[in-house]
Amino acid sequence: MNLKAAIAALILFSPITGCNSENYLVHERETVVVHEVYSEVPVYIETEVPTDNEDVEIWVDSFTQPRSVDGVDILWVIDTSGSMHRYEANLLVGIETMLSALPPSGWRLAMTSNSPDKAVLESQFPLVPGDDIADAEAMYSAMGIGHNEEGFDASYEYIMNNSYASTWMRSDAALLVVFVSDEEEQSNDHFSVVQDFIDWYQTLRGGSVYLSSIVNVEEVDSDCAWNVNVNDIGDRYMEATNYFGGIIVDICNEDWSAGVTDASVQIDPFEEWTLTHPAIEATIRVFIDGQLNWDWTYDSASNSVAFTVIPGGGQHVEIGYVIDDTPGDDDDSGDSGN
Fold first, then answer.
1. What CATH number was assigned to the domain covering residues 72-265?
2. What is the pTM of this model?
């Protein structure tokens, strides 16, 4: 689940006075002006959520449906400074995992240094379906080695200014950029401000763009066996990745496979969604682009919502429900979205 998007969705409940409790989903907040003072007020959608218990917790899972596109171009932007040697084995295993997780056709994958002066000159033919880890190792070994920690600027130079990249990157394919670095992002040319990178990147490929980052995370969450220098935490990478709902992997995690697999499949359309918590079935409500939707069914065995009409590319889906604190009890009403 994208927690940031879930919090922003503001699916709340509001008890009504009386003997019984009635709860309502609140989809968003509206800004109003009263006596020249701006205030946010709930906008109540007339969607009753039946429950006899006022002490309930409403949760929302959310995602944006990937757009239907012709394949995916993948660019690994890799820190090639000396401190990265300790991660080379994990890096190659991560790339091998991605090669295995990708569909049998439609993708192309290249690697480049996160040093812009090398990224603009990189000229290796991308990996394609049928290539394996030996091909990936050869590409990695032949990659230009730079020492600037500027992943944002490097991705710009490769995508926009590298004449060889223009021969294989496709305007009608999705784009996935994977940043790998044990140091903070330090671009100071095109993107000294993270939002500038976000603003540029989201204009590419009609918005069919995805990000993942394999970086140093906050020390409290880090698996590093040493104290991570606060200046080496990849805050800028993570800020951009979170904006696009991407995958973040702790670079000190011994196994990047799960995160890399998640990054590989995030471009596939979702036909169903497994809920984060056990749900009381009668309380499930689905919104697509803010509109209440009933084209779905719920499977209690897998605790998942399956869409009978698949949400379109770019549509934002929110699934709100009351968490079932006593899973296994017969408290479902048998309702479904269909």
1. 3.40.50.410
2. 0.66
